[in-house]
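Thread title: Can someone regenerate the structure for this chain?

I was given the following input by a collaborator and told the matching structure tokens would be attached. They weren't. Posting the sequence so someone can regenerate them.
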Amino acid sequence: MDDEGIPNVSYLSQVHYVDDEHVALSNQFFSKTARNVELTGQATVLVVDGRTGQQYELDLVFERAVQSGDTFSRIDAQIRATGAREGPGVPWLLRSADIYRVRGCQLVPAQPEPPAAELLRQDSGALLAAAARLAMRLAKTSDPDAMIDAMLDGLQRELGYTNVIVLLADEECGRLTTIGSRGYSLGGVGSEARIGEGAIGVAAASARPIRISDMSRGRRYAAAVGGEAGERVIPLPGLTEPQSQLAAPMISNGRVQGVLFAEDARRFRFTHADEDALAMVALQLAGGLRLSEAEAPGVRRDGQARAPAGRPFHVRYHSFDDSLFIDDVYLIKGVPGRLLFHLLKLHAESGRTDFSNRELRLDGALRLPELKDNLEARLILLRRRLDEKEAPVRITRPERGLIHLELARPPRLEVVA
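Best answer:
Regenerated them for you:
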């Protein structure tokens, strides 16, 4: 209400729970309301329980505005994810998180929508217990491939998430790459999302979970790097009309290694407990994958399998972006593409089919980063992409630290500058 007694009504982007006595409102673009609050120090907020449709009126007293700290960062990350989803022109700059003391809370009589019964029955304690059991199983697994599959299966079977994706971060390229998914018609291994954009990208950039409960007001965020139309783009798996999204960063040793992502066609599918559960599993997976990068005890073997016969398959490698095509079909780009071409080249020169992680790390031709080369993760991505495309060349792991090349037919290599 202004100094003439005229109330001003604004729609808020975020009303964030701080503690039992306080909420934080996003000061984003409601300057008229902000001026009125500055005059009176009071505000009234109407919030809606998305699951039951019940409305509550909060009687608030302004205490302070903060431009940093945990509450500010949480709201800022949420707004950036939402802003990307709702498209250009939506203001996402958070001026401050305004902290209010809740002086009163009153139920507004209304005819609620029928609650989503299956969601209201959800037991937070049981959900967290299931996540803890899944994390324990992951901790007992040393094989990173098996770890990823067990995690994806567990999220579906035990936590009830219908559509899930796991992506690994490539900090140098500013992107995340899909290495596994469940619940989609296309696996999408090798598809990418930009760090800093959408729920997935903001979760990686901010190192915080992102939960979006109602996407019905905005268009779906095209998280894939699909805007870069071309033959080197793999579509990111995704629901046609998702209503809820949840993304949890995979953090280990102070570094974001990737993101676990879940989405659902129902509104308000994910709760605070889901956020905690997915974060718990994400942290366990990140730790397991980091440990798998440790130098393996595998001993180099100079195995030479019998030379494959039949019509050669054509391998075209573009050196400018390390993209690789097999029989004119795009396979992958970046370090995994460079890695596969390097293995095929060694095979063509020597007939070798067995290699070790150690020799690849020491081979300057691969130009792997000296630190954090993520070789194991890149091999997982490459192996899964070859399997998904049913390629005439596959990668197997006879033991930890060793790589075996399986060739159904002889390769014919071509380099394009």
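Residues 218-229 have pLDDT under 50 and may be disordered.
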